Amino acid sequence: LPKQIQYHKLLGYLTNKHKFRDSQLDAIKTLAEDNKNLIFVSPTGSGKSIIYQIYGILSQAQMLVLSPLIALQKNQVELLWKKWIPATLINSSLNKEEKNKRLENIATASYSFVFAHPKQFLTKNFDTNQIELKLSNKLLYSPFGSLCIDEAHVIDTWGKNFIEEYGKLLILRKHLKCPRTVLLSATLTKKQQKKIADELFLENEKPKIIVTGFYRPEISLHVITFGLDNPHLTTREDFIDDLLHKNVGKKVIIFATTKNQVDNLTLFLKQKGHNAEGYHSDIRSENIRNIKSQVQNRFSGNEPPEIEILVCTSAFGMGINIRNIRIAIHYSLPFSVNDYYQQVGRIGRDRLPSDAYLLNDVRESTRWIDFIDQKQLEKVLDEHKKEELKSILEKEKKDFTDYVNSPDKWKYILDYFGDTLKLSIWGKIKYYIKKIFII
């Protein structure tokens, strides 16, 4: 069959869909037809996995997939086996007998996909303080026709001093004779993409970079600044109260930085007559998973009593997946542009108009971020690693401050990730009309 037909047949078989999303097909062709390496950056839920899966199946050679979390590895292996595609994982959770059995099968290329953490291949030599190949591991000598690095942002964000093996993947690529490689991420910034392209690939094999899907035209981004002697704005609480009264009946999620903020804001809103509930990790029932399931059902209206306004910490709110949340409010500044984008992504999943309000109190500014950053730094004992983490946190804080002050919020976000505004003429007209009327 022609490759074009094979692509669509596999898409239908793997996903039950018959149309590729934006740039998926271009990404697959980059690997399968152009024989180029690839860095593919697209938001969570945009279908990045299908790229390595279709290419891996068509290549008819065993693909090594590097993934930082055992839970992600297990999930992917289970999904592939449901489609009768042979896949396995190698990690520390396996007993010796089971691990050896799988290694024997991998040695004869019995699988289409093998999932592992870089620690299976690389180790630190404490005499030289260098990352080296784990020459005793049989996995290192197994036949792999291609390589996928999932959650590739780990390479630059934490791969220098925290998950050091991720920072030395060129050693592994050279040992495997530089196989066709695809990197997938939802959060690689434009600067990180270039840095990884330079550090992980040799001069004659530089990857194509595809960034797509970050613009959400249904979401309007607003920044409301307090503490500048504006007679029309008093406190963040009063602004939220007024906004909620104007949007009665709409689903609203409010992100707060601390548990105390969640509790105090929830109490304030209830006293003002709003149907609000607050949640964070200190609120216990049987366990946190049951709580999240209960909140999901009450917030979506599937279980009484229904919640209209959910006040929560970012960690709790990221587990909420409801299509018709209309408004997101950030009571305090998030820690990074990436965190903010991920949290705002909770709203408007049904593609209907939605609004995100970031409340910037100049009297508080980044005080909470500084406080929590300091708590993170106190946990790190190694001074070199502490300086590295401090540098990362300072950079993220500066980037977010630049976002707050930027005149065009969506343009800043797209530039940050290296995406571009791909709109028709009518789409551009609507974009700039909306921009004029944004608060």
TrEMBL record:
Keyword Chaperone applies: no
Enzyme class, UniProt record, top EC level: isomerase
Catalytic activity: Couples ATP hydrolysis with the unwinding of duplex DNA by translocating in the 3'-5' direction
Keywords of this entry: ATP-binding, DNA-binding, Helicase, Hydrolase, Isomerase, Nucleotide-binding
Family: Belongs to the helicase family. RecQ subfamily.
Calcium found in the keyword field: no
GO-annotated molecular function: 3'-5' DNA helicase activity; ATP binding; DNA binding; four-way junction helicase activity; hydrolase activity
Record's protein name: DNA 3'-5' helicase
A GO CC annotation given for this chain: cytoplasm
Helicase C-terminal domain ranges (all copies): 227-393
EC assignment: 5.6.2.4
One Pfam family of this chain: Helicase_C
